[in-house]
Amino acid sequence: MKYASGLDSKMLGRTPDSIWDIVCERGEVLGDKVYLNFIDDGDTLAYRETQRRAAAIGRGLLKAGMVRGSKVGLLLMGSSLHVLAWFGSISASLVDVPINPDSRGEVLDHAITKTDVDALFVDASGMAALHTASDQCRSRISLVIAPDAVHGSALQSKDVPSGIGRFISVSELEKLGRDGEPAAAIDPKVLTSIRFSSGTTGLPKGVMMDHGHMLASARKFNDMMSFGSQDIMYTCFPFHHVFATITGVLSTMCSGGSMIVARKFSASRYWKDIRDYQVTRAHVLDPLVPMLMKQPPSELDRKHQVKVMYTAAGHYPEFEQRFGIRIIALYDMSELTVVVHYPEGAERRPGSCGKESGLFDVRIIDDEGVEVPVGTDGEMTVRPRYPNIMFLGYYNDSDQTVEQWRDLWFHTGDRGRRDEDGYYYFLGRVGDRIRRRGVNISAEQIEKVALAHEDILECAAIAVPSPLGEDDIKLCARLAAGASLRPADIASYLAGALPKALTVRYIEILETLPKTQTEKVQRAALRRMGKRGLTESTWDHENECYWQVP
């Protein structure tokens, strides 16, 4: 195949490839090979079909009034339509904007208006969401496209969202674009996609991406995973985020392999799907690892073909031992590509996400912007060594872009440290730091200990005000099904597992924890509960006289 599947260092200093050129070449060479298999929908896409239908959608969008640079919203679940709308937008030099289909009301208004969405693809879930948008938001959308069944049902029931412009079916759009000249040449260095950040501390920001940035991430994934044309990938994550699409859909396109797509994560079916569909490569989000580990051990745990698995900053030797796989630990962001990872043959160190990838310079600084000594915690800042491998800025948010690029370094907002041998350790978000009795404490350190308890399914440690100044620690926990732990039981367990400097004073058991679109717990949302994180349901061991803390 003409286009490289992995990230060849020779391509970093030149003009990046066009994603659409790769789609066209793969369609011609791979033909009817299955590209994506949506196992919950009974739907598949072959390579040639993907190229042909995406081209028709792209031409259809242009004939329907879109122009180069128009923003095309994808208010869709993970589906073949999502992929066709994405690649179709690229083929016509339009800008795709994936939007969480669970968004409602003001959150949906923000996503659509912030990014100047002009055309919008919706499925049944997206249609329901669009009804909750404000009249002002809907009135700015000139074209809404829905699957034939959703389109027909809405017309029949007279349930078309008010205020929108033209409302057509996917078949109509494809028919409109079935014939015509190919789109003009694509400039791979201009804005082609806006992806929302996770939004752990506020409303998500629109991360602007070009072809080179997305391809660098997709190809680096292929290099680290040794993901080739004979491999089968598995994902069960939402398509409005880069995890499933750029390091999934696009990585698979680059590799020429195939991908199995499940609609959502299920701890009980994760490994079953992998076995049933002969999967050889997979990825998993860090917060979900404890859920998989808390499934009952089975003789089937190692009866699969996956050798390596991609996650993020986690180090999970017990997981690797149980399931017989190797974790690819790394540090990256939507705004970047892989900053830190384990190169081939590097020694594994507990808690570390590896060494510099070679794509970025990395510096750890203090609150004044001064680089800290080796072994000292600080904020991780980076800058690229090559062009076209990171984002173009935040869309319609120049102030935030400048703020993140202080002193000509990109400030990640993440805490970390580097040891004397060049290994990096991710320590969480800067705003999630806890300072108790003069000691800086990592929330992740407390959470890791808490999650070792078999009855704690998910948890988050947060800083709450202390009457002595600085912070006290609160743990918010979600219990496993059928568990009957009391806060006092959790407090007793933590007291025996943590040093006194990390004493957890407050505990609250919750039915659910607020999450980002990538399953990260939103600690900022927990800190906003009640009075700066303390609610009427918060259990306080000092009030209970459970033990005395010197």
Low-confidence stretches: 546-550
| Structural class estimated from helices and strands | alpha/beta
What helical percentage do the residues reach?
25-40%
The number of helical segments is 17
Strand order of the largest sheet: 2-1-11-10-12-13-14
Rg, nearest Å? 24 Å
Overall 3D form: globular
Total count of strands: 28
In the CATH hierarchy, what is the architecture of one domain at level 2? 3-Layer(aba) Sandwich
Q: Averaged pLDDT, please?
A: 91
- CATH class of one domain, named Alpha Beta
Task: Name the beta content range.
Answer: 15-25%
C-alpha termini separation? 68 Å
The largest sheet is:
7 strands, mixed
**CATH fold name of one domain:** Rossmann fold
Topology of helices and strands:
Layout: H1 19-30, E1 34-38, E2 43-46, H2 47-63, E3 71-75, H3 80-91, E4 95-98, H4 105-114, E5 117-122, H5 124-131, H6 135-138, E6 143-146, H7 148-156, E7 166-169, H8 170-176, E8 193-196, E9 206-209, H9 211-225, E10 232-235, H10 242-255, E11 258-261, H11 270-276, E12 281-283, H12 289-293, E13 308-310, H13 317-323, E14 326-328, E15 330-331, E16 340-341, E17 355-356, E18 360-365, E19 378-384, E20 393-394, H14 398-404, E21 410-418, E22 424-429, E23 434-436, E24 439-441, H15 443-451, E25 456-465, E26 471-479, H16 487-497, E27 506-509, H17 523-527, E28 539-540
Parallel strand pairs: 1-11, 3-4, 3-5, 5-6, 6-7, 10-11, 10-12, 12-13, 13-14, 26-27
Antiparallel strand pairs: 1-2, 8-9, 9-20, 15-16, 16-17, 18-19, 19-21, 21-22, 23-24, 25-26, 27-28
Helix pairs in contact: 1-2, 2-3, 2-8, 9-10
